[in-house]
Amino acid sequence: MIEIFYSLIGVIFILAAIKAVGDTAPHRYWTAAFWLILAVIFMAGPHLPGWVSGAGILLLALLSGSKNVRATKNNVPTEEEVKHNASVIGGKVFIPVLSLALTAFLAATLLPFGASNAIGISSIIGICLALFVTRAPVKYILWDSTRLVDTVGSASIFPQLLAALGALFTVAGVGKVIAGLAVCIIPPDNRFIAVVVFCLGMFLFAFIMGNAFAAFSVIMVGIAVPFLFPQGANPTIIGALGISAGYCGTLCTPMAANFNILPAVLLETTDKYIVIKSQISLMLLLLVTHILLINFFAY
């Protein structure tokens, strides 16, 4: 089922490529090539030789690094239309957004499809709720999805690249290196220090990689398995709180462009780091909270 959702995302990328070709900007063909290559990888990646997908990713990096992937002209609503729609819809606009987490949790818990498929299912439900709440024509699903992808640009594939980086680090044995360093820091049988190092490790790696998923496998192998589990830590609690502790790092890193830089761009703020600055105090509170929760409830 997961390939169906990836194929739907690929369709959006194809539409973004078509939109770019129809533009008059000088970079339109390079931008279209970027989205078309990405669409092929998303839709046919499992059926392509590894070297073909790898070559495609290198081309994506070259196109993005050369700054030839840029947003094309978008037809956005006028200020009057935005105000009118806001007055009509009001707070109901948050219903589809809030439903994503709930439906993803229920799908992952009650249906035998796995977490990735659950996210896809929740996205479909969210789209249906958005259409119901806004009464917008179905065609706006494609229009606005394409516009959003075009606006975000190459930063939209950061999560996939960072997750792949985490898997690469794990295969390369970075977790074992972390474990070797942790031996010098964590005193024998000191549960609290082990928890602190675990949470700080998740924080730092998520900060560097921009994604807690990329950090999770490395820190679990390097710290949780050799230091927390032998002391009787509950793997379920360590896994759940460990991944959210990593998101403390995500809150304050520009590497998490889709979380911290994109909102500033879309809101047209003068300071592109304003989101990060506003989240630092919350990050510190959450990090300390995670350390205490793991220390008191994981054993």
Architecture overview:
The protein is mostly helical and 299 residues long. The chain has a domain of 125 residues. It contains 14 helices and no strands. Helix 5 packs antiparallel against helix 6, helix 8 packs parallel to helix 11 and helix 10 runs antiparallel to helix 11. It is globular. The two termini are 37 Å apart. The mean pLDDT is 80.
Topology:
Elements: H1 2-21, H2 28-44, H3 50-65, H4 79-89, H5 94-110, H6 115-134, H7 139-152, H8 158-171, H9 174-183, H10 191-209, H11 212-228, H12 235-250, H13 257-266, H14 274-297
Helix pairs in contact: 1-2, 1-7, 2-3, 5-6, 8-11, 9-11, 10-11, 10-12, 10-14, 11-12, 12-14
Highlighted features:
14 helices; 299 residues
- Category by helix and strand content: mainly alpha
Number of helices: 14
Percent of residues in beta strands: under 5%
Helix content: over 70%
**What average pLDDT do the residues reach?**
80
Question: How many strands in all?
Answer: 0
Shape: globular
Main beta sheet: none
Q: Poorly predicted ranges (pLDDT <50, ≥5 residues)?
A: none
Q: What is the radius of gyration?
A: 21 Å
Write a compact overview of the structure shown.
This protein has 299 residues and is mainly α. It has helices at 2-21, 28-44, 50-65, 79-89, 94-110, 115-134, 139-152, 158-171, 174-183, 191-209, 212-228, 235-250, 257-266, 274-297.
